[in-house]
Design brief:
The chain is α+β, with helices and mostly antiparallel strands. It folds into six domains: 57 residues, Orthogonal Bundle (Helix Hairpins); 243 residues, D-amino Acid Aminotransferase, Chain A, domain 1, CATH 3.30.470; 104 residues, Nucleic acid-binding proteins (OB fold (Dihydrolipoamide Acetyltransferase, E2P)); 75 residues, DNA polymerase, domain 1, CATH 1.10.150.20; 71 residues, 5' to 3' exonuclease, C-terminal subdomain (DNA polymerase, domain 1), CATH 1.10.150.20; 68 residues, 3-Layer(aba) Sandwich (Rossmann fold). It has 23 helices and 22 strands. Strands 12, 13, 14, 15, 16, 17 and 18 form a seven-stranded antiparallel sheet that branches. A five-stranded mixed sheet has the order 2-11-10-3-9. Strands 5-4-7-8 form a four-stranded antiparallel sheet. Helix 15 crosses helix 16. The longest helix has 32 residues. The protein is globular and about 85 Å long. The chain starts with a helix and ends with a helix. The chain binds nicotinamide-adenine-dinucleotide and zinc ion. The site of nicotinamide-adenine-dinucleotide has 25 residues, from helix 1, helix 2, strand 3 and strand 4. Keywords: DNA damage, DNA repair, DNA replication, Ligase, Magnesium, Manganese, Metal-binding, NAD, Zinc. Its cofactor is Mg(2+); Mn(2+). InterPro entries: BRCT_dom (IPR001357), BRCT_dom_sf (IPR036420), DisA/LigA_HHH (IPR041663), DNA_ligase (IPR001679), DNA_ligase_AS (IPR018239), DNA_ligase_CS (IPR033136), DNAligase_adenylation (IPR013839), DNAligase_N (IPR013840). Belongs to the NAD-dependent DNA ligase family. LigA subfamily.
Length: 676
């Protein structure tokens, strides 16, 4: 009995393994040959891991052609196939710290009592190529393919600026007759975005990510296409003829740079803790890099130790790729929610099954507008790819499949919050609620904006309190903020006596916010904090801004016809003027701003103030110079026009001298400050 059950079980296992292998082969083909994956890398990695664990559960010999044993995909018949002098392997993966620890322990165990030194390299997300140099001259370039042979892309590779046709040697090194250099061809984020924009305009499907875009651009029959794609290259290894050149990876990288290759920033580490520190440092830098990386590669530095550890089927034992949390994952759309903003714009938002991406769990992604919703087919029930890079707000990148059960969202014809009718402004994609301030959603957003940090900055008046005050009917306009009946607040949950006292104090303080902020707080269309500041420094006081006509508004730097029209129409509305008068009656009194003078000698100049001044505080001086149109900055560079140095000026003054920048002292500063 027992054994028959086991047989049935393993039959079941075998079936699942076969299914998985076929599924993964399909994904390999789409990814490596078509450069158009259908699932995200994170999902692919899960499938491969599942297969790996099922294969070991079954405990039978694994065939050589299982996806867990092979590298990449065989070269496509479209290209000439090239056998590599030495195979190109893949890398084993670590998805968490325990797996990194296990990797280091395995290495330590395998090598016995030796000091281990590792080098960490960013794992750039591109595709590997093998460059064959004969007598220092590039003769063949091939993709990794299945690791044994790849596709001949020599003509295309010759268009890549970072790949030397001739290896540079300054005579003191004898090159081996044949030398294989390995590295990663990649596409920068910027080129990727530009390429997809262009493809979109031409009606071609976008590339899923920079890796696929780089692969698609390299695997071209016409090298002129590759040349337009601005690919980059980093070298990280050698094959045939290379090992004798150096005794360690760190030495090799220096040598490769000498040959004329770019190499990435690396770090040395001698413990798990140090490796992980490097991992976190790189993870932080990730969003700021010009190209995408999907992890960090730890390599045992010494070649001698590398050789002693050797390799398994598809990857070396002396290296591992520690993957970063995926920036792209798939999930399904539960619903489309319509959110009403401050100006009444109604935006579709995807409510999704919560999923971890870029290190946080997300369940909401804005779709910006109906066009985007329809173009991306983000329907309830659809499976979508969600992306979150760094601190960027999560977005739906694309929809993978919309099956029959997916429901197309109904575009609302009335506001989901207040029920007022919905309208569209000519030439705009956005739909809007016509309810104005009678719409509580709009009112809440407008109030939140009014009290927010960059605006009136009223501490203690958070989102929740604002929402409740609106719901209770105590806030019907921003003018009500200063006329609250505090007695009514007593006894509200989370609103104690102390909180009320603090809130009153915060409101009092906020009455003196500078004019620039006050203008921003009013929520006039197109008037953000920068425009608020321009208006304030041009007109000086609120009355002047309110009285300005279209023409005088156009005289303000940075203000164009659309913004001018919006400002005019805002102040032209009687109900807006009423609100402002109520605010002023309640004691709001933005101090008059100093009017920017024109024609000041420093107007438009980038100046750096350093050291201390006797007659004037440095910060105050900076602010005044700003009003005169100067641009005070904190550090000296080639862009600096002038350095004004006071007592005890240090390194900035030295740097200014080095760069030959004009230098002035306190006497000149005072003259500039008193300029009329
Ligand atoms: N979404 C899909 O359908 C699909 C299908 C197949 C593969 N994939 C993805 O492709 C990857 C697997 O491909 P793989 O076999 O190329 O493995 P890999 O990308 O995980 O790691 C090996 C590769 O890393 C690259 N690399 C980058 N920097 C390196 C460095 N400093 N040193 C050494 N190598 C470096 C090299 O190209 C090397 O071949 C996985 O991320 C997988 O998710 C996705
Ligand atoms: Zn509404």
């Amino acid at each position: 009995m027992e054994s028959s059950k086991t047989t049935a079980d393993s039959e079941d296992l075998r079936q699942r393994i076969t299914l998985l292998r076929n599924e993964i082969r399909g994904h390999n083909y789409r990814y490596y040959t078509l450069d158009a994956p259908q699932i995200t890398d994170a999902e692919y990695d899960l499938l491969l891991r599942e297969l790996d664990s099922l294969e070991s559960e079954l405990g039978e010999p694994v065939p050589d052609d299982s996806p867990t044993r092979i590298v990449g995909a065989p070269p496509s018949a479209t290209f000439t196939s090239r056998v590599h002098g030495e195979p190109l392997l893949s890398l084993a993966n670590a998805f968490d710290e325990e797996e990194v620890e296990a990797f280091v322990h395995r290495a330590a165990e395998g090598l016995g009592d030796v000091e281990l030194s590792f080098i960490s390299e960013p794992k750039i997300d591109g595709l590997a190529v093998n460059l064959r140099y004969e007598q220092g001259v590039l003769v063949v370039a091939a993709t990794r393919g299945d690791g044994i042979s790849g596709e001949d892309v020599t003509d295309n590779v010759r268009t890549i600026a970072g790949i030397p046709w001739h290896l540079k040697t300054n005579g003191d090194l004898t090159l081996p007759p044949v030398l294989e250099v390995r590295g990663e061809v990649y596409m920068s984020r910027r080129s990727f975005a530009a390429l997809n924009e262009q493809r979109d305009a031409e009606g071609q499907p976008p590339f899923a990510n920079p890796r696929n875009a780089a692969a698609g651009s390299l695997r071209q029959l016409d090298a002129r296409v590759t040349a337009q794609r601005k690919l980059g290259f980093f070298a990280y290894g050698v094959g045939l003829g290379g090992r004798a050149l150096a005794s360690s990876q760190s030495e090799l990288l220096i040598l490769l740079q000498g040959f004329g290759f770019a190499a990435q920033q690396t770090e040395m580490a001698s413990s798990v803790a140090e490796l992980l520190e490097g991992y976190h440092r790189l993870l932080e830098q990730r969003p700021n890099l010009a190209y995408e990386i999907d992890g960090i590669v730890y390599k045992l530095d010494s070649y001698e130790l590398q050789e002693r550890l050797g390799a398994v089927a598809r990857s070396p034992r002396w290296a591992i790729a520690h993957k970063f949390p995926a920036e792209e994952v798939t999930t399904s759309v539960r619903d489309i929610i319509w959110q009403v903003g401050r100006t009444g714009v109604i935006t579709p938002v995807a409510d999704m099954e919560p999923v971890a991406v870029g290190g946080v769990v997300v369940s909401r992604a804005t779709l910006h507008n109906i066009d985007e919703l329809q173009r991306k087919q983000v329907y309830t029930g659809a499976t979508v790819v969600v992306r979150r890079a760094g601190d960027v707000i999560p977005e739906v990148v694309r929809t993978l499949n919309v099956d029959d059960s997916a429901r197309k969202p109904v575009i609302p014809d009335e506001c989901p919050v207040c029920g007022a009718s919905v309208f569209r402004i000519e030439g705009e994609v956005a739909i809007r609620c016509s309810g104005g301030l009678s719409c509580s959603a709009q009112l809440k957003e407008r109030l939140r904006h009014f009290v927010s940090r960059g605006a009136m900055d009223i501490e203690g008046m958070g989102d929740k309190l604002v929402a409740r005050l609106v719901d209770e009917g105590m806030l019907k306009s921003i003018a009500d903020v200063y006329e609250l009946d505090y007695a009514q607040l007593a006894g509200w949950q989370g609103v104690g006596e102390k909180k009320i006292t603090n809130l009153q104090a915060a409101l009092e303080v906020s009455k003196q916010r500078p004019l620039a902020r006050f203008l921003h707080a009013l929520g006039i269309r197109h008037v953000g904090s920068a425009t608020g500041a321009s208006l304030a420094s041009h007109f000086g006081n609120l009355d002047a801004v309110m009285a300005a006509d279209q023409e005088s508004l156009l005289a303000v730097p940075d203000i164009g016809p659309e913004v001018a029209a919006s400002i005019c129409s805002f102040f032209g509305e009687q109900h807006n003027r009423d609100v402002i008068h109520r605010l002023l009656r309640a004691g709001v009194e933005p101090p008059a701003a100093q009017v920017a003078a024109t024609g000041h000698p420093l107007a438009g100049k980038t100046v750096v103030l350093t050291g201390s001044f006797e007659a004037v505080n440095r910060r105050v001086a900076q602010e005044k110079l700003r009003l005169f149109g100067a641009k005070p900055t904190g550090s000296v560079s080639a862009k600096t026009d002038l350095v004004i140095a006071g007592e005890k000026a240090g390194s900035k003054l030295t740097k200014a001298r080095e760069l030959g920048i004009e230098i002035a002292g306190e006497a000149e500063l005072l003259a500039w400050l008193n300029w009329q």
